[in-house]
Design a protein that fits this description.
There is one protein chain. The chain is an alpha/beta fold. The protein is built from six helices and seven strands. It has a four-stranded mixed β-sheet.
Length: 179
Amino acid sequence: MIMVITLKYEYRVIKSKRKTAAIEIDENCNLILRVPLRYSQKTVEKLILDHTEWIEKHMIIQREKQKNKIVLSYEQINSLKEKARNIIPERVEYYSKIMGLKISGIKITSAQKRFGSCSGKNSLCFSYILMQYPMEAVDYVVVHELAHIVYKNHGKDFYRLIEKYLPDYKLREKMLKRR
């Protein structure tokens, strides 16, 4: 990792055996560039210059998120976890039946960066944080993770399967991006 201060931004470069570059703004408004090993400093700086507009926009979005971030108490977290343990398995059972899918397990987690996941062995995990969203959004995450049992990617067929059960899935997905 290299920490550099040039251009308009302070940023961190993480070089790895990857094929493409990625620009990330973390929750603390740090600019992180994940680039292939072959990228020179000049190429990194060009990447920043070429994406200045995107960076500015997402810095503003991230600062707003930080301002509006709700810090939950221990009691609130426990309440949301309990609610998730009661609601999510019921929703998984409902949708897995109508989709004709079998899961190998279900867990409620404290994940902060993802609402759900599906393992290679078809075990599903859901964050208690989902309980802060409308049920339509919760159902979307449930169907999304169940669809990963059939498709282990985010291709067109994957989204067609979701749309079969939730024709308004795009609106539901947007609900999750509002916070």
